[in-house]
Amino acid sequence: MEVASVADQKEAGMIFRGWGWLKAFPGKIISKVVEFARKTKKLGQDDPRRIIHSLKVGLAITLVSMFYYFEPLYDGFGVSAMWAVLTVVVVFEFSVGATLSKGFNRGLATFLAGTLGFGAHHLAILSGEKAEPILLGLFVFLLAAMMTFVRFFPRMKAKYDYGVLVFILTFCLISVSGYRDDEVLEMAHKRVSTILLGGFAALLVCIVICPVWAGNDLHNLVANNIEQLASFLEGFGPEYFNTSEDVESNNTLLEGYKSVLHSKQTEESLANFARWEPCHGQFRFGHPWKHYLKIGSLTRKCAYRIEALHGYLNTKNQTSQEIRSKIQDESIKVSSESVKALKELAMAIETMITPSAATLHITKSKIAAKNLKLMLNADLCKETDLLEVIPAVTMASLLVDVVSCSEKIAESVHELASLAKFKSVKPEVAARKPSLQKMQSYSSVNVSQSHHVITVE
Amino acid sequence: MEVASVADQKEAGMIFRGWGWLKAFPGKIISKVVEFARKTKKLGQDDPRRIIHSLKVGLAITLVSMFYYFEPLYDGFGVSAMWAVLTVVVVFEFSVGATLSKGFNRGLATFLAGTLGFGAHHLAILSGEKAEPILLGLFVFLLAAMMTFVRFFPRMKAKYDYGVLVFILTFCLISVSGYRDDEVLEMAHKRVSTILLGGFAALLVCIVICPVWAGNDLHNLVANNIEQLASFLEGFGPEYFNTSEDVESNNTLLEGYKSVLHSKQTEESLANFARWEPCHGQFRFGHPWKHYLKIGSLTRKCAYRIEALHGYLNTKNQTSQEIRSKIQDESIKVSSESVKALKELAMAIETMITPSAATLHITKSKIAAKNLKLMLNADLCKETDLLEVIPAVTMASLLVDVVSCSEKIAESVHELASLAKFKSVKPEVAARKPSLQKMQSYSSVNVSQSHHVITVE
Predict the structure, then answer these.
(1) A-chain residues within 8 Å CB-CB of B170?
(2) Are B86 and A82 in contact (CB under 8 A)?
(3) Pick from B88, B165, B167, B349: CA 20 to 30 A from residue B255's CA?
(4) Residues sharing a CB contact under 8 Å with residue A32, sequence separation 6 or more, in sequence order
(5) Alpha carbons A272 and A214: distance in angstroms, whole number
(6) Residue B423 above 90 pLDDT?
């Protein structure tokens, strides 16, 4: 009896849970939909260029589809016209550089593979009917295997991965399908010209309507990453010495640098795309995009130090307020001068004006660092409990390390200033220029490769 | 006269240089070819699976091309058969997980978009001849714009980016091209079935012949990254205290951790692919792949500390040999115990045997760290010149930090051990098992997303 009642209870429990789940179902769906709408809105607000990009893609595809649709044009290209639609869908990327790179890859690879495929097909036909399939199969196998291996070369992978893929694809389509209708040459010609047409349409829409420049994004990203380091240092002093009042805003300052730690791949792909772009805005032809990677790598090195420093925020309670207050002034001086230097460097990159005061701030920061060290030497070692002092000493040392990292960033930004021929304007004059203010306001960086949304200011 | 002679000299110089360039040209080409051959050999030697993968791709494409080539089969599918070739080229990836993920994305997206495209086409026809092109254009525009925006969602981008692309593509091809021949349904059916065929062929070759499992790669990568941290700590002591003899091998030990710093994206994409894979080898269905990301993130945190510690190798000369020798024994004890713990953790992941001694080593390392702190307290603070001591104190603190990071890694590996049901074998027994030795030798990790080649041991 008892067993039965337990079973009954279990069943009743299951029914009850099932009913509860069913009742909660509409609510769950509604909350999911609301969540989705909220995320969609946020994505659009974070970077309105995403909405524009989506509309641009819709426009380009519709344009090319209509081209396919209307009779007189259709007669010229036939079913091959779908290659144009396909090309637009595949080639249209977020930034002009990425679109150019993909379009170029696709165009050149199709042309080369078309030529080679025609040659292979011709050779196979010459060899007689029996040898033909064997020869064709051999060609396809060798080329596909070799080209697949070529994709493993790091340099090829970074720049021409898509091109190699299209090369294999077109070669197979042309050489093998050629067997069918003996109109290989016409087919190759059609494929090349429709792809050119699709690529051209994609490029046109991409460049003419609100273009997104990968170079501009890289430029802003690098400047913004330096700014993030400055933000951390700005928030660190008040947090460590308990002088901060607004905890929440301080936390935002302190966490921003984390996106810098993982920015390597994004920077590299943006630099890759930027090289494809023609001169635009402030950027002349041959702008030293590669040098941004150097600055980026130094910024990351500094961010690693800051990550270690961040760990010392939690150890602050191991050191008494008294000891901390002894090094407070000099520590805050060190960080605030570094903040000024880093902020000026970030601003210098953004506005493309040679930084004038950064070196001075770095020097001041280095002097403060020296004083901090002397103070550690003079005051702290008289303490009886050194265990309390050790975390403070380490914190101070890491802070001093950050200064030397900032110095390297400053050097590298100065190099960029001379390579990219930054303007030399006195800071007072610069602040007054309205156009520069405008430039700064346009600094929301979106990068299609990364999922972080980074907004300057 | 002089002007003329200067011009003559210039011209002569140019000719001379041009001639020199021409003479050097064949040599340059030869050296390029040699360089290329050397790189190719190295790529193949670093990971022979690359060569096998290339041959597999060649085989799959040839198989499907031949399918297209032979008459009786051709009659069934017609020109659409080229979609099968296209699918193989596009879907075939290095690992089984990536191929499955792409194949599934392509298959499902084609099916859904085919259905929707047919519906849109039907709706447009019902609306009358005049409204048809307008309606079709509107459908294409809306769908392309919406789907392009969906690609910005981080989660969609990580898992279904390719699927969304294929969805847009198929929808446009079916709905617009349908206008042409009124055989939309047949076309949609053909496209779906040829794509299924191509995807099936690609999967078959990918899984049957020497499969590469993304899960296995992730597993080895995470273990190897922990091993790299251990290697650094192993080399750090001798380098800092000048007791190392073999400088070159020490440098390799010290630089290995750098690849860990940038491993985030690689780990994430491998974990993404691993989830698609069926159970294989040691990995059961529902293996906790997500947990590897947690271990990976803790490993990276430790690597950031190590990067800071690495910076202190250069400051060693600021501290006299005498002071350094005072903390030498304890520092080396701290790092050597951490090395033992980390190596056991790495080995535990690789062999899937619950680590037994790691906790003990961590405890020993923590005791040594405490002693080190006491020693700093007792001995160093009597020094008159504290400026010399500060770098040593910082170094020691960072070393202690690394220990606490290692502790977290150890906890996380223990969690993995219980989640993934690692075997519990005593270490002595484990060392004797021949199968485990074999497993270790197969630990060259290749990741198609990253350009680093990581080899364990």
Answers:
(1) none
(2) no
(3) B349
(4) none
(5) 9
(6) no
Interface touch A137/B65, C-beta < 8 Å: yes
Q: What angle do CA A34, A36, A41 make, to 5 degrees?
A: 95
Query: How confident is the model over A92-138, as pLDDT tens digits?
Result: 999 999 999 999 999 999 889 988 988 888 888 888 878 888 888 89
Give the pLDDT band (50/70/90) at residue A430.
very low
Domain range list for chain A: 51-208, 214-419
In the numeric block, the tokens 């990159």 are attached to A349
Q: Is the ipTM of this complex over 0.85?
A: no
- Cβ-based neighbours of B310, under 8 Å, separated by 6 or more: B232, B254, B257
**What percent of chain B clears pLDDT 90, i.e. is strictly above it?**
32
DSSP reduced 3-state for B291? helix
Decide if B397 and A401 are in contact by the 8 Å CB cutoff. no
Mean pLDDT along residues B316-321: 75
A241-245, B228-232, B417-421: least confident range = A241-245
**What three-state secondary structure class fits A175?**
helix
pLDDT of residue B54: 94
For residue B429, with 0-12 CB atoms within 10 Å meaning exposed, 13-18 middle and 19 or more buried, which class applies?
exposed
CATH of A214-419, picked from 2.30.130, 1.20.58, 1.10.3470, 1.10.260, is 1.20.58
d(CA A135, CA A124): 6
* pLDDT per position as a tens digit, B336-354: 999 999 999 999 998 888 8
Taking alpha carbons only, the member of B122, B306, B112 closest to residue B192 is B112
Q: Which residue of A has its CA nearest to B371?
A: A387
Inter-chain contacts counted by CB atoms under 8 A, chains A and B: 211
Residue A283 pLDDT: 85
Query: Running DSSP on this structure, what letter comes out for residue A444?
Result: E
Chain B residues lying within 8 Å of A396, measured CB to CB:
390
User: Radius of gyration (Cα) for chain A, nearest Å?
Assistant: 31
Question: Which residues neighbour B98 within 8 Å (Cβ) at sequence distance 6 or greater?
Answer: B214, B273, B276, B448
Question: What are the φ and ψ backbone dihedral angles of B454, each rounded to 5 degrees?
Answer: -115, 125
Please tell me the distance from the alpha carbon of residue A134 to that of residue A210, in angstroms, as a whole number: 52
- Tally the residues of chain B: 457
